[in-house]
Amino acid sequence: MSIIKFGVAVVGIRGTIGGITFSANKHGPYARAWSKGSHPATPRQTDQQSYLAQMPALWQALTPVQRTAWDVFAALGAQDLINSLGETYSISGFGWFCKINIRLLVMGRAARVAVPVQARPAAPTITDLEFPLGPGQTAFVEYPSAEFDPDFDLVLEAAQASSVAGKPPPTDFKEVAVLQDPNDTETGFAQEYANRFGTGNTGLKGFVRLYRQTTDGLRSAPAAADFVAGDGTNYAPGALDYDGMTDWAVRAGGLTGAANTETCTIVGWFKVDGGNGDFRTFFGNTANHYNLRLTTANKLQFLAETAGGVAVVNIISDATFTAGIAWHAFAISVNLDTPVAQMVIDGAIDDFQTITLTQGGIMDFDQATYQFGSRVGAAQPWDGCLSSFWLDVNSSLDIHDPAVLTIFFSRDNGPQFLGSTGQLPTGATPVIYFPDGDAEDNVGEGENFINAGPIDPCGTTP
User: Fold this and answer.
1) What is the pLDDT of residues 236-265, one digit of tens each?
2) Cα distances (Å, whole numbers) of residue 375 to 247, 366, 387
3) What is the CA radius of gyration of the chain?
4) Are 395 and 426 in contact (CB under 8 A)?
5) Cβ(55)–Cβ(95) under 8 Å?
6) pLDDT mean for each 10 residues of the chain (462 residues)
7) CB within 8 A of 395, min separation 6: which ones?
8) CA nearest 422: which of 399, 442, 404?
9) How far is the C-alpha of 324 from the C-alpha of 322, rounded, in Å?
10) Angstrom distance (rounded) from CA 298 to CA 359
């Protein structure tokens, strides 16, 4: 391979001439001998080739008037394209016929005969991005509500690079998601990204381009900026500070989805401000039908009873937690059918003490009243900050599996984005998900709680 420095007459070359390929990377322009590219025959590539193979016959089936309409459409300035050198160029009516119809077929829509009649849409807005820069990491792009309603499809492209060093983002973007008229506020793309780029991406920088596409195949410009995720920890939820006296939240009248069960998975983040040597509860009821708290020995304890008040779970962490500036991440998984329990503290498996773990026991999560930040009746109030509490009573996830754990924990044990309703870990909405530690904002299946006091934001976040 050779490098090239252009003069005033020629400023750039792309393509292959006489067996020499001209291109450019982050270091500048270069030339190298042409070689045949790889042909991995991925399902997406195979589909694209199949669609392309259909185009000549579809074009020939058009009437002369219809083909002329496509030629006129292609000649309009609005259809000008930009090449990798930043220069404007145009393609033929047949070229646009192929481009539009392949877009539609990839989206799962029918090919069209007539030229598009809808206006080209404006670029969408990206509000947040989590990029999978290591195995098992969450990947999503977030956008405002109704950004694609009612008539726009979504196209998401991604690329990665080891360094940009002041250069423009990479140009070799690949489609990682196509969705018809999405009605959510985020789109996940971890699996498709892994299929395209692999999973050994730690230390790389990621880029996405998000497009609106009309139902007749016209595509917007990409989202106004390429978002770069530095190290997979760019998701930053809020947190609330419970004062240990009058701050708690209550839910009376039951909680949708909170069934009596043999299984549960609980994940969250906490910071201890005070109360060393006291019981401090951040999720509990009057008795111990369910109770998640710190003990008088400053250890994390999870208790559960049957509806008749018989203890079936009582596990206590080996780790201790005292007042300080540090945030702590925890995950607890219980399956009483086996029975087995797991506990992870700050990303490490905890050698917890098992007091009670009853095979076939049923944990009584189906209560009339629930309390967050203390037990029901304001006993054992929590003195500290809470964030990103997640409770699912239909699963007992294997949190000893690093691939499962990284769904919840980033590399520095911070929270990962779990979806707008907390659905990403299991594919279903959990009973409770408080992304910001605020029980008044439960985006899980259950209802919102009511705060008993004006709970202030925490001065730090996990």
Assistant:
1) 678 889 988 888 888 888 899 999 999 999
2) 11, 16, 18
3) 28
4) yes
5) no
6) 54 66 62 62 74 93 95 91 76 94 93 93 81 62 82 88 53 84 81 73 70 94 56 62 88 89 95 92 80 94 92 95 93 96 94 94 90 81 91 94 83 77 88 83 90 85 84
7) 263, 264, 265, 425, 426
8) 442
9) 6
10) 28
Paired with 209 in beta bridges are 157
d(CA 399, CA 252): 31
Q: Cα–Cα distance between 404 and 23 in angstroms, integer?
A: 41
Query: Are the CB atoms for 290 and 325 separated by under 8 Å?
Result: no
**Cα 202 from chain centre:** 17
Element (H, E) at 57: helix 43-60
Q: What are 180-220's pLDDT values in tens digits?
A: 888 778 888 877 887 777 765 555 667 788 999 999 999 99
Contacts of 276 (CB under 8 A, 6+ apart): 298, 322, 323
CA pair distance 54, 336, nearest whole angstrom: 56
The tokens for 163 are 């360094």
Q: What is the pLDDT of residue 264?
A: 95
Q: What single string gives the DSSP state of each residue in 190-218?
A: HHHHHHHH-S--TT-EEEEEEEEEETTS-
How crowded is residue 316: how many other Cβ atoms within 10 Å of its Cβ? 18
For residue 62, what is the DSSP state? S
Closest-CA residue to 154 (of 178, 138, 173): 178
Would you report the helix, strand and coil content of the chain in percent, each value rounded to 5? Answer: 15, 30, 55
Instruction: Provide the pLDDT for residue 462.
Output: 82
